[in-house]
Amino acid sequence: KKPEATMFVDRAAMKEKVRMNLMKEAHDVSNYYHEEGLWRAIATHPIFEKMTLVVIAVNALWIGVDTDYNDADVLLNATPTFQIAEQFFCVFFLFEWFSRFMSFKVKRWGLKDGWFVFDSALVFMMVMETW
Predict the structure, then answer these.
(1) How far is Cα 46 from Cα 32, in angstroms, rounded to an integer?
(2) Is 26 helix (H, G, I), strand (E, B) or coil?
């Protein structure tokens, strides 16, 4: 005889599932990094992490300014203000990506981190657009 499907989840099974998820170790990309070294020190430094978040926020605002006030079709035809800003963001994000890439003990382990893969795609597109 087939067991009846119930409308509600088994309470004990749900509690056990929650317990197992709470005990699971949180993902920390720095576990894949070298134990020491310049690139790890840069990539994991709290000031660098906070500075990166600030640059991301400023870049988001800049995209709005660029959309509203930059009438040029290509960066080379834009005014120097727009060119300098785009170059700054591109250099910063490339450096941030490079420092994280160099931090990986085994470079292909970067593929295990979804944020690093996502950032890789964003930086690649930004470099192709800017340079």
Answers:
(1) 18
(2) coil
